[in-house]
Specification:
Layout lengths: L4 H34 L5 H13 L2 H12 L4 H10 L7 H25 L3 H9 L4 H29 L3 H6 L10 H10 L3 H31 L1
Helix pairs in contact: 1-5, 1-7, 2-5, 5-7, 6-7, 7-10, 9-10
Length: 225
């Protein structure tokens, strides 16, 4: 039994959502991880706690909060309607947002740990030689922490790929529009189609194994340096 068109769409959409959300998380999370790792500032603990919330909240609670913020009457959703005359709820963009919010804490905490492991004396030497913070980051911090950051990217991708609760709340299950793999598995089980659910689970497991293999290879290479 092969993948039917709806199941195949869910695989493609899940990869699209995971890649998109991981790109967003990496772009936004890397500077924040650097800031948390190297700076002391007011309300730093509060910021760290806020970032951690999606790890503590049940996914459906996270999805509900996002729905309140991004819905037609929500502050962000109302702004989007005013500017673009459209919203993102119940679209594949909502799935990207849900996946990004769910995976953001994992990325930031992993990347922060990698950056904190960089010898701070090297940063001091760089500043002493007249190099700015941006130059120091790209020439010193990033090369030394890159394996940890890449691992954070892979973990974020895996988390985004498996996101279910927040996605269901914010994007809903709309065939050929928002049906990611986890939602399609849920739909298959609900309809008693366990053979189809098993096939989609096998596809998910294959992607997860590739991800884990990539993390292990990365970890082994880092030990050789």
């Amino acid at each position: 039994m092969g993948l039917d068109p709806l199941a195949l769409f869910s695989v493609k959409l899940s990869l699209k959502v995971a890649i998109s959300s991981t790109a967003i998380v990496t772009l936004l999370g890397t500077p924040l991880a650097y800031l948390l790792a190297t700076r002391d500032f007011p309300f730093k603990n509060a910021v760290d706690a806020l970032i951690t919330l999606p790890l503590v909240f049940p996914p459906t609670v996270t999805g509900y909060i996002l729905l309140l913020l991004l819905g037609r009457k929500g502050p962000i959703g109302e702004l989007l309607y005013t500017l673009f005359h459209k919203g993102i709820v119940f679209t594949w963009y909502a799935a990207v947002v849900a996946a990004a919010v769910a995976s953001f804490p994992i990325f930031v905490k992993s990347a922060r740990a990698a950056i904190e492991a960089v010898d701070k004396r090297l940063l001091t030497v760089s500043y002493t030689l007249g190099k700015g913070e941006v130059t120091t980051f790209f020439r010193i911090v990033l090369p030394l922490a890159k394996r940890g950051i890449v691992a954070a990217v892979i973990l974020s991708f895996a988390r985004a790929l498996g996101e279910f609760g927040a996605t269901l709340m914010l994007a809903g299950y709309i065939p050929f529009k928002t049906n990611t793999i986890p939602l399609e598995i849920y739909s298959s089980v609900s309809n008693g189609d366990f053979e189809r659910a098993n096939l989609l689970t096998a596809v998910t497991a294959a992607i997860a194994l590739v991800t884990i293999y990539a993390i292990n290879r990365l970890s082994n290479r880092s030990k050789q340096w």
